[in-house]
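From the methods appendix. Each design record in this collection lists the tokenized structure first, followed by the designed amino acid sequence. Records were kept in a plain field format so they could be parsed without special tools. The example shown here is representative of the layout used throughout.

RECORD:
FOLD TOKENS (467 positions):
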């Protein structure tokens, strides 16, 4: 089985969020299921700089498609300097402003993907797997122009690739695609909408999110588009790369440990205290996140005094909305030794924070899957999560029954509720230091957060739609 994955970012070459982790880890996980996956990614500067030897396999307007094997990935790299060789991020400049030509950039990306899918690069996939709005025109090209069947995965339905209708002429699509069965969406172009109505199968990254996106609260206006195709929607929870995220071998840590050697974990807590000036004692909660409304971090900002009043500590790692960044900075000044804030992101630091913290807070208002709680489980950092999307699917709440059965792995609270988050923090502090806490840590670390089961589901799905 040969599958072309089309993703706008892929770890470890280029990453802004969980999409990159999924695109980077899934190909290796699928090998054992008998699937050969190649991944098309844009030739951003970071990608081009990381490549070793490449082979040009296809000429395109303004550039070429290069094939390379890098970091265990079989890659097609779309090398069009005019579109992708620029300073800033994959989708916007250094100030965070979207590139004005994103419609043309990712329309070209999708058009080239469709050509590769039809065998023009000398390799013929059986299935195409497109990720998020940046690749969502691939199923549209294949439906209107022919080619193998397609899967579209929604990582976050809030991002829809919506542009003014005047960009349609830049998309390389036939006139017939400007319709309710194509990319037209209330007079605009929506890349995601086009993919949703043309893909052979729609997946999203957790079973709960697959149900949520059919509702007005979570569907972000697309619930009506998806409803007639609800029978084609599947929720397959993400996994993580358990080699990259492994506390037994992670060279970022002050001390490695396992579920059997949890006492060694304390060295990482002490190292984190020393690095960020936190005083010993009490549970250390952490945040590793984009600091945004979606992530519910305004609710946490309102609960910091409550957390500190209970004897807890807080370490915040992330960047995002200026108001939230400022709120956490002020909290650190208000509670020296009890709250520390690192505005920015550092991959190695994120590993150290997971290994040194006792619990991680994820009060998201919606969360399609979430990978951070999976990393936390792996590191024995107990997740405190909102009951939504993949958070609800991957964390077993520490109610009385779950604790008596010795299966609890964290704390789950109602969404969009500051008081509910405060109660969950209270519950976590009450259990901290008891024998039950250690049981929960070991449960968490032994949970299967790998790609194994999910890769088998994807492989079976590919086989059902392959020509």
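DESIGN:
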């Amino acid at each position: 089985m040969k599958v072309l994955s089309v993703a706008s970012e892929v770890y470890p070459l280029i990453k802004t969020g969980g999409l990159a982790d999924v695109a980077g880890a899934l190909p290796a996980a699928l090998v054992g299921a008998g699937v050969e996956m190649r991944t098309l990614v844009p030739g951003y500067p970071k990608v081009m700089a990381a490549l070793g030897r490449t082979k040009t396999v296809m000429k395109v307007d303004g550039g070429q498609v290069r094939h390379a094997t890098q970091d265990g990935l079989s890659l097609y790299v779309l090398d069009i300097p005019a579109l992708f060789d620029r300073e800033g991020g994959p989708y916007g400049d250094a100030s965070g402003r979207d590139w004005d030509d994103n419609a043309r950039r990712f329309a070209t990306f999708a058009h080239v993907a469709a050509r590769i899918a039809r065998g023009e690069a000398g390799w013929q996939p059986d299935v195409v797997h497109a990720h998020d709005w940046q690749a969502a025109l691939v199923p549209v090209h294949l439906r209107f122009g022919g080619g193998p069947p397609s899967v579209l995965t929604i990582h976050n339905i809030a991002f829809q690739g919506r542009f003014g209708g005047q960009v349609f002429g830049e998309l390389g699509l036939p006139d017939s695609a400007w319709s309710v069965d194509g990319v037209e969406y209330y007079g605009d172009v929506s890349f995601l909408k086009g993919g949703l109505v043309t893909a052979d199968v729609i997946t999203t990254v957790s079973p709960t999110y697959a149900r949520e996106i059919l509702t007005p609260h979570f569907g972000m206006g697309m619930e009506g588009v998806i409803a007639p195709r609800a029978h084609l929607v599947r929720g397959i929870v993400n996994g993580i790369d358990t080699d990259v995220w492994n506390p037994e071998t992670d060279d970022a840590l002050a001390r490695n440990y396992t579920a059997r050697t949890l006492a060694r974990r304390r060295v990482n807590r002490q190292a984190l205290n020393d690095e960020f000036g936190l005083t010993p004692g009490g549970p250390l909660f952490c945040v590793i996140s984009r600091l945004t409304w979606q992530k519910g971090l305004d609710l946490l900002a309102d609960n910091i005094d409550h957390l500190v009043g209970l004897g807890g500590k807080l370490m915040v790692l992330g960047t995002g909305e200026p108001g939230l960044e400022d709120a956490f900075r002020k909290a650190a000044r208000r509670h020296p030794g009890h709250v520390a804030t690192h505005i920015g992101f550092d991959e190695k630091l994120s590993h150290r924070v997971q290994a040194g913290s006792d619990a991680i807070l994820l009060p998201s208002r919606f969360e399609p899957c979430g990978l951070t709680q999976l990393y936390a489980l792996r590191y024995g950092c107990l997740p405190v999560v909102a009951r939504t999307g993949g958070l609800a699917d991957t964390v077993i709440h520490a109610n009385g029954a779950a604790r008596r059965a010795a299966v609890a792995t964290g704390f789950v609270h109602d969404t969009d509720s500051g008081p509910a988050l405060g109660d969950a923090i209270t519950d976590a502090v009450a259990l901290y230091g008891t024998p039950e806490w250690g049981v929960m840590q070991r449960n968490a670390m032994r949970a299967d957060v790998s790609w194994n089961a999910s890769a088998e589901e994807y492989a079976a799905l590919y086989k059902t739609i392959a020509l």
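APPENDIX NOTE: The chain is about 40% helix and 20% strand.
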